[in-house]
């Protein structure tokens, strides 16, 4: 499935990515890897007079998480990334070893702990460990791995089918301090294992007091890998699944206009599962979410030179 991203990007571009900079490709965003198999631009049409340029890509072709692109902790983690608490009152805590990269994919693995531990989990008991990837800073005072403002983000994902496990791909604002709250959120994918075939794509705005949910795509008829994307522009946010537009938010006055980070996460029994009626006794010992690739393009004028 995935191919060598470093080989595809080339020495200069790979060096820029390792430095945390935006990586750019040619004007048509088609990069030729050493195996001759190009990565095409997204199927989504770029704005008029513009074209897509790749700025972030991980094909997960290595044998470990690429620490130049990802961290395994939340933006608000103030120490190291060896352990991060659940974000939505779930049962999990996140540890680096629960993200496994091999055979061209990244697998986020949820597993029941041999013994529950006290912590910032549901009812004060963390019963599982799970996997998390973000492009946030790996601790306060350190630079972000990657952020972007406007563009098309896409990931190819196989969601977990285990009840109580939520497979997610979302974008969260870059936070300049460790206080306050996030005002916006773009959920490119939320999929609950107990709701087979149902995928949610939502934009939260106005201090996350209001939301727009994409509703134009039917439930998935098949399991396995599917692509999930969002085209974020100054005047609209459009969600995609397998290349099909699922909903468009076009209230320009309420479009978020500051940089965001990428997040891939496998949650265990979050508050959304509980509100849906799932019993704690239904939560399985474990499950997995598999990511084939994660990519981001930004639009540039057709005449813009590469670099």
What does this structure look like?
The chain is mainly beta. The chain has one domain (65-291): Jelly Rolls (Sandwich), CATH 2.60.120. Helices cover 6% and strands 40% of the residues. The chain contains two helices and 17 strands. The protein has helices spanning 5-18, 271-275, and strands at 50-58, 84-85, 92-94, 99-102, 105-118, 125-130, 132-134, 151-158, 165-173, 185-192, 200-205, 210-213, 225-233, 236-241, 244-249, 260-268, 286-301. Strands 1, 2, 3, 4, 5, 6, 8, 13, 14, 15 and 17 form an eleven-stranded mixed beta sheet that branches. It has a six-stranded antiparallel beta sheet with strand order 7-16-9-10-11-12, with no helix packed on it. The protein is globular and about 60 Å long. The two termini are 28 Å apart.
DSSP E strands, number: 17
Low-confidence stretches: 1-36
Number of helices: 2
How many structural units, i.e. domains? 1
Helix content: under 10%
Overall mean confidence score, pLDDT = 85
β-strand amount = 35-45%
Give the CA-based shape: globular
Query: What composes the largest sheet?
Result: 11 strands, mixed
Just give the CATH class.
Mainly Beta
- Report the structural category: mainly beta
CATH topology: Jelly Rolls
H/E series, N to C? HEEEEEEEEEEEEEEEEHE
Radius of gyration: 19 Å
């Amino acid at each position: 499935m995935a191919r060598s991203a470093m080989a595809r990007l080339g020495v200069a571009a790979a060096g820029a990515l390792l430095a945390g900079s935006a990586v750019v490709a040619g004007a048509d965003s088609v990069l030729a890897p050493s195996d001759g198999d190009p990565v095409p631009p997204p199927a989504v049409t770029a704005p008029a007079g513009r074209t897509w340029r790749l700025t972030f890509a991980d094909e997960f072709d290595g044998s470990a998480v690429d620490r130049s692109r990802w961290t395994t902790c939340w933006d608000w983690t103030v120490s190291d990334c060896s352990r991060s608490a659940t974000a939505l009152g779930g049962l999990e805590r996140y540890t680096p070893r629960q993200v496994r990269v091999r055979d061209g994919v990244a697998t986020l693995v949820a597993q029941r702990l041999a013994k529950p531990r006290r912590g910032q989990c549901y009812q004060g008991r963390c019963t599982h460990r799970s996997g998390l990837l973000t492009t946030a800073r790996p601790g306060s005072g350190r630079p972000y791995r990657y952020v972007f403002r406007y563009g098309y983000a896409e990931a190819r994902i196989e969601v977990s089918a285990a009840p109580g496990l939520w497979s997610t791909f979302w974008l969260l604002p870059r936070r300049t301090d460790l206080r306050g709250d996030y005002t916006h959120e773009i959920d490119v994918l939320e999929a609950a294992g107990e709701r087979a075939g149902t995928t949610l794509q939502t934009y939260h705005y106005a201090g996350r007091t209001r939301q727009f949910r994409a509703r134009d795509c039917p439930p998935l008829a098949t399991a396995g890998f599917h692509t999930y994307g969002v085209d974020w522009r100054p005047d609209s946010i459009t969600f995609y699944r397998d290349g099909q537009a699922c909903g468009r938010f076009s209230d320009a006055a309420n479009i978020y206009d500051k940089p965001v980070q990428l997040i891939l996460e496998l949650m265990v029994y979050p508050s959304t599962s509980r509100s849906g009626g799932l019993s704690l006794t239904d939560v399985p010992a474990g499950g997995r979410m598999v990511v084939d690739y994660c990519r981001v393009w930004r639009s540039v004028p057709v005449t813009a030179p590469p670099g």
